[in-house]
Amino acid sequence: MNDSESSLFNQSLEKGLAVLRAFNARRRTMNLAEVAEAAGINKSSAQRMIYTLEALGYVSKHPLSKRFQLTPEVMEIGYNYLAADTLVDVANPFLAELAQTTGETTNLTEPVRTDMLYVARFVGPKFIPIHLPIGSRIPMYCTASGRAYLSALEEDEVKALLARSELIRHTHLTRTSPEQILEAIAEVRRKGYAINSEELFLGDMAVAAPVRNSQGRPVASVHVVAPTSRWSVEDAERRLAPAALECARAISTSIRAL
């Protein structure tokens, strides 16, 4: 029996969360029919969920267009996670030092299903071409932080995650073949760090290393942003990779001591 088949599983809560997740950058506002379609529920259920979420202050309705949108109240849920996440507290001083050492923006990402989620950042003084706010998600299969995390998993776990991933081409450099991705991950294992150039966004490059818990399991990745306008792959590997590795190892050592 899986979780959704258990008598303890609350389907109403599942539907309510599906409605909240249905709103995004492409669907900033929706009418009731669009909410139902995006959340994968019928219109009657959507109406009950929207009414409840509106009463609780998580959704509001425009008085003229009658379209629904999220309210800032939703941010409290995400903030509470970050405030309670010990890993973020431990990582922050090391990320700050890494940003100061490299002069570039540094980030901590954590795994969520087949993506990596931004949970901490220290912004460097130099321009970065792509801004992804805290809470943004990036795919594991085509990013440095994702491949760094995958490199610390067992091979069967990696293959299972790739099988669940939508391997789409974001740029002409994106590797979408499972064989190519597995080869790239094997290289990360050999080197200890991942470097990814323009596979998600043109002009964007990053160097990443995995953070491991006391059992040696990966729990996050540290990555340094290295725009291709300032860095070659060779220079990033020579100057940024050692610093990213040292940062990830320091965070790993610190969380093991908790």
Automatic annotation (TrEMBL):
Domain (HTH iclR-type) ranges: 10-72
Offer one Pfam family short name for this entry.
HTH_IclR
- Keyword terms of this UniProt record: DNA-binding, Transcription, Transcription regulation
SUPFAM superfamilies named in the record: GAF domain-like, Winged helix' DNA-binding domain
* Domain of life according to the entry: Bacteria
Ranges of residues in domain IclR-ED: 73-257
Q: Does the keyword Transcription apply?
A: yes
Full protein name: IclR family transcriptional regulator
